[in-house]
Amino acid sequence: MTPGREDAQVSRAGESGHPGGLWSGTLPDMAAWLLWLIAAGLFAAGEVASLDLVLLMFAGGALGGMALALLGAAAFVQVIAFIVVSGVLLALVRPIATKHLIQGTPLQLDGVNTLIGRTARVTRPVDVDGGRIRLGADEWSARAQLRGESFAVGDTVRILQVDGATAVVGEAFE
Predict the structure, then answer these.
(1) Which CATH code, of 2.40.50.140, 3.30.300.30, 3.30.470.10, 2.30.180.10, is assigned to 111-171?
(2) Dihedral through CA 29, CA 35, CA 36, CA 39, nearest 10?
(3) Of the four listed, 57, 88, 119, 154, which is most buried by Cβ atoms within 10 Å?
(4) What is the C-alpha separation between 147 and 97, in angstroms, rounded?
(5) What does the longest C-alpha to C-alpha distance in the chain come to?
């Protein structure tokens, strides 16, 4: 092979040193730590969708593999570190984190349950058969909680529960 011909082949190969460079059908030389970092990012992104804390533990294992790759460890040692770190995180950290997430969150009212306990103004007389109330800018159908109880237009009532689209109201005691 002539020297000029050899230089042409090396320049086509790029930095990988393999004929054909990136288009040769082989994986380009990429730092192992970067692959572990990409894996950790993909696991973390998957965790956002699953919310099960399993993929997050795998992301931690991938960071363990990345740490050993940065230290120059062999690939099989990196994989073993990934498995060990992921296993430890799954066995020790995930149960504690899950417990804190489930038990540490106070019971939060949402939807129509946020209306319970609020006061409203009667816009049409309310009795056990029905009526209307104004709560802020919204007007709701309403009914009295107890038979024989009624509220006149302008009275203030307290919402005791919500039954479908109807507020069950009682005396506001204000």
Answers:
(1) 2.40.50.140
(2) -160
(3) 57
(4) 49
(5) 109
